[in-house]
Design a protein that fits this description.
Layout: E1 9-11, H1 13-23, H2 35-43, E2 46-47, H3 57-66, H4 71-79, E3 93-97, E4 101-105, H5 113-120, H6 133-144, H7 149-152, H8 166-177, E5 180-186, E6 189-194, H9 195-198, H10 201-204, H11 210-225, E7 227-229, H12 230-236, H13 241-247, E8 254-258, E9 265-267, H14 269-273, E10 283-284, H15 295-302, E11 324-328, E12 331-341, E13 344-352, H16 358-371, E14 376-379, H17 385-396
Parallel strand pairs: 1-8, 13-14
Antiparallel strand pairs: 2-4, 3-4, 5-6, 7-9, 8-9, 10-11, 11-12, 12-13
Length: 398
């Protein structure tokens, strides 16, 4: 068994938490010059999801870091390409399987070659495909240009969300293989194009070997996390533990120990150069935000149990359908399950760790309401009637 290298630093639990917050863009002044694209490049991946309560998750992620950035601005930053021949490269981002279905910076296209090869090595995937359908999809895209699944002949066979048509199966398989790419959305529908047409040549033909891909993704995960265990680093882009083990020594990350962590950890050396200081962000977080998407890490760093209950039967929900963790003062201080009724933001259920968090939660609710053009806020339920009354009074004071 290979021995682990000697740790280069010993971090307290508080230092690790603050390093993680800074790495994720929640501690210190945000880089507003980079805007939404800067957030995407800094995080390395922004998870997509179909659920939309206040907004979709890919909108909530930059909002949580930058504040009330326009929602159209968010979509344009991800999916509006630069004119041909201009910088930055056209397009800015693409969709692929990373932590889950994610938006990724286009410059990372070469580093997912290992995953494209792995998908091609398992050609049957989950669905049978009528003979010739795959080839017909590629032929149609080549002839007609970028198309949605509907344009290609239909996304579904029935009204069931999972009952994909052969065309949809084919084009998604082509996306997994890297022959097709999604760099745009129209009304939340993916727009597919041939990778050879959409991805800049310098990136398209840069086929790295698996080790090079994995080193880059491990390094990116370490930078985006600040500090993490092997499991944390593997989970960020959904790598296998053995893949991380094979390259972590050459990734540029450095071994550290963290107070209270039972497993070895690695840190971004840049994160250790200066103590993490600055202003803490107070905000509602998407349940799919990369700060909290790993439940085990969230519990270890924040002592906070996080679980999305959208897919839990309603009678069994504890915190609500889309309970959003509330970040304040560098801590996760509670949860808000929001909804919208016309111009009213409704806090259907508020669960706080302490009454001291009431002012912070009120600020987070007020900013979120303003962002989504709500002019009123109503608190329906809280841990106790007294907490509900205190939060309602605090909101009325603004």
């Amino acid at each position: 068994m290979t021995s682990l290298p000697r740790p280069t630093a010993e971090l307290s639990a508080d230092e690790a938490r603050r390093i993680a917050l800074r790495a994720q863009g929640f501690l210190g002044a945000p880089d507003r010059r980079g805007g939404v694209r800067g957030v995407l490049r800094h995080l390395g991946a922004v998870q997509l999801d179909t659920i939309s309560v206040l907004a979709r998750s890919h909108e909530l992620v930059p909002y949580a870091r930058l504040g009330a950035v326009g929602r159209r601005t968010v979509d344009e930053a991800y999916w509006t390409p630069a004119p041909a021949g201009t910088a930055p490269a056209r397009p800015h981002a693409f969709e692929y399987w990373s932590h889950a279905a994610c938006i990724l910076p286009v410059e990372e296209w070469p580093h997912f070659a290992f995953r494209r090869r792995a998908y091609r090595a398992r050609p049957h995937w989950h669905h049978d495909l009528p003979e010739g359908t795959y080839e017909q999809v590629i032929k149609q895209l080549r002839a007609e240009g970028p198309l949605t699944a509907t344009d290609l002949g239909g996304a579904k066979r029935t009204s069931e969300w999972w009952d994909w048509s052969g065309t949809k199966v084919a084009v998604e398989r082509a996306l997994m293989y890297g022959e097709v790419v999604c760099t745009e959305r129209r009304g939340w529908k993916r727009v597919y194009d041939l990778a050879e047409r959409a991805i800049p040549d310098a990136l398209l033909h840069d086929e790295l070997d698996d080790a090079e891909c994995l080193r880059r993704l491990v390094r990116l995960a370490g930078r985006s996390l600040g500090v993490g265990t092997r499991a944390d680093i593997a989970d960020y882009h959904r790598l296998r533990n053995e893949q991380v083990d094979a390259v972590i020594a050459d990734s540029g990350l450095v071994p550290v120990t963290v107070e209270g962590w039972s497993k070895p950890a690695w840190a971004d050396p840049a994160a250790l150069e200066t103590p993490p200081r600055g202003r803490h962000r107070t905000t509602l977080l998407s349940p799919f935000d990369s700060l909290v998407w790993d439940r085990a890490r969230t519990e270890r760093i924040f002592g906070f149990t996080h679980r999305l209950e959208a897919y839990v039967p309603k009678p069994k929900r504890v915190y609500g359908y889309f309970a959003m963790p509330v970040l304040a003062g560098g801590r996760l201080v509670g949860r808000v399950d929001p909804a919208r009724e016309g111009a009213t933001l409704v806090a259907k259920q508020v669960t706080l760790e302490s009454p001291r968090s009431v002012p912070a939660v009120a600020r987070a609710l007020l900013e979120a309401a303003t962002w989504v053009d709500c002019t009123n806020i109503r608190v329906e339920r809280a841990n106790t009637p007294a907490l509900r009354d205190a939060l309602t009074a605090e909101l009325g004071a603004f």
